[in-house]
Amino acid sequence: MTESRLTVLKTHKLFIKGAFPRGESGRTHPLHDKDGGVLAQLCTGSRKDLREAVEAAKAAQPSWAASTPYLRGQILYRLAEMIEGRADELTAALRETTGASAKNARAEVNAAVDRTICFAGWADKLGSVLGNQNSVAAPYWNFTAPEPVGTLGIIAPEEAPLLGFVSMWLPALCAGNTVIVLASERFPLPALLMAESMPSSDVPAGVFNLLTGFREELLKPFASHREIDGVVAAVNNAQATVLREQGADNLKRVRILDDRHDWSSESCDGPDAFGGTVEYKTTWHPLSAE
Amino acid sequence: MSTATPSPKAAKWDYAPAPESFRPEINADHGLFIDGKFAPAKSGRTMNVINPATEEHLTRVSEAGKSDVDRAYKAARKALRGWSRMKAGERGKLLFRVARKLQERAREFSVLETLNNGKPIKESRDADIPESAKHFFYHAGWCDKLRYAVAGGHEPGPVGVCGQIIPWNFPLMMAAWKLAPALACGNTCVLKPAETTPLTALRLAELFCDCDFPPGVVNIVTGGPEAGKAIAQHEGFDKIAFTGSTEVGRGIVKGCAGRPVRLTMELGGKGAQLIFADAAIDQAVESAVLGIFYNQGQVCCAGSRLLVEESIAEMFQAKLLHRMASLRMGDPMDKNTDVGAINSAAQLKRIAGYVKIARNEGAVVHECGVGEIPKKGFWCKPTALGGVQPAHVVAREEIFGPVVCLMTFRTVDEAVARANDTPFGLSAGVWTEKSAKMFDVARRLRAGVVWCNGFNLFDAASPFGGMKESGFGREGGRHGLLEYLAH
What we know:
Distance between the termini of chain A: 91 Å
Strand order of the largest sheet of chain B: 14-15-16-13-12-17-18
Helix content of chain A: 40-55%
Number of strands of chain A: 11
CATH superfamily of chain A: Aldehyde Dehydrogenase, Chain A, domain 1
Oligomer: heterodimer
Order of helices and strands of chain A: EEEHHHHHEEEHEHEHEHEE
Distance between the termini of chain B: 58 Å
Number of domains of chain B: 2
CATH architecture of the largest domain in chain B: 3-Layer(aba) Sandwich
CATH class of the largest domain in chain B: Alpha Beta
Helix content of chain B: 25-40%
Shape of chain A: globular
């Protein structure tokens, strides 16, 4: 005999500075399942929540960038372990919200774990692959090395809410940036579940921050915030224009990926994925025995 | 209260005049170089070009308008297919030719550069022209090796048609920095030299003809802001590469926001040189002088802020002023001249405005140098500002002239924080004899180029470009090449 009981409806919260605040406005909006039913409530991130997140990300950036690449690699590996451990839950979330088949949902989760592993391995190879010595015509040792851009705004794609989502910020974290990610507006559930894995995976507070909310409302604040050094966004042309135009005020680095980007392509695992997350410093050092 | 201290007595060095006597012929009129031919602007409008050291008229050049720029872009588009599909080694040979011919005609180009820009002949002779040749030589060698330049190993292609806008401070060198990598990667170009300094770029156009470049691969249009706007707002380019002020750069980025075009922005700077107490002081003084008075300080990566460790600040300032007192200002064509003319009346006015602001803000103004200010031309004495606070306008804004701010620090952390306390991020210098400290500081400075125990060093093989509001993209080296490749 089964007793009927009421299910506890969850309100998914934002993830800022390693904590789960409700958002300053107190607004919420519903999360729908694939059939249009209400699955849970979502906090509606605001411009002010973005400001809080930027402050956290900016404060966390210098020490994250200064941590050894080996350590960053290990932390990302630990994150992959966490995702693998929640594979069933993530698969269910994808099926419930996007309507993906069991097979496809599982494949997306597997690919997300594998991509995380891939970038765990990139952290201490990035400098060797993207940097080099330069043979200058003077007695100087001259080299160019990649450095993180700083604090990045990431606009995750609407589709591929898990694989696209992780592919957007893994290179950024790997290279030593801190991020504020705006989750898919329609399908934010996998991202929210991932955020719940963050505190247990040794990613320091403030390094990864997640907002849910409306693109229409948040794109401009992302683009115009002067403490955000760059934006990596999977958006349509109109949204890209907004980001580039508003971002020009502080010469933001803006990298646009097609919102229909093929997240299973090999280029997502390769050095191209670091576009918009690194810039180059060239150092000259004299050679002399004097 | 600002009190100007008398400049220290110069060391007595008498030199006999040593003027460069060679004068290349300069045509009375210059057309626009489009599709392999020189022709006047459609409107028939022209601009006068003068020598900033004497205000003498040098020549007239055509002033391009919208329709001229359109014609240039069409020529570049038409030439793209043939140029990008030319056998890479052959393309390289054409660029090697340019390098060689520039070397052969170095004297002619040096004199032209100094006449038109006002910089000392020893600088155009020893740096501008040889470095320009080197840029073509370096990039010529890349043509058949592009696939190895890109991580990933696939064969990259050109970006396409490039609009390129360059400043007046290093007229030929900037043209070389823009054209050489673009052409090596198979792109075609529309280049606009600065309004006041078109001469060497136009001479370079002749040189491209002499080297048998296919028409339309390189187009050079002279003009003012209208031509610049036409280049940046045209629908026919795939990339814009701009070197100039942050303000104009920002406008170009906004203007291109709706299109998926590539951009390289090399903008302003407020470079800091950090001088630690354990530095080799005499060399550091030389570096400070080179950092700010080279090219009359009209250098985007100039070391316009000297941050000196407090314990040696007084001694350092005395040595600096002593050294500044022996800088010889005057005829740029004299081979002994250290400090030449400011490029234009407008720039001189801007610099003088900043010195006035410095006085009003309470800085101590030291104006130094040997030589009377000539009656004609645009001149500014080498100037050091003492007692500058980090919040002062002159410590924050780019002056683009021979004016340096002296400031102090006590700890390594403070030095780094002060150096980074600017929206710019182009260049920085570190002076210390301790290598671990040097690399630690170099790593923490937010600048695209960091010079250790040196300053203002450039090389075709070495990427140059800024972080933060100094722009994005690199020029030179493998990283500069990537900006002109679609991959």
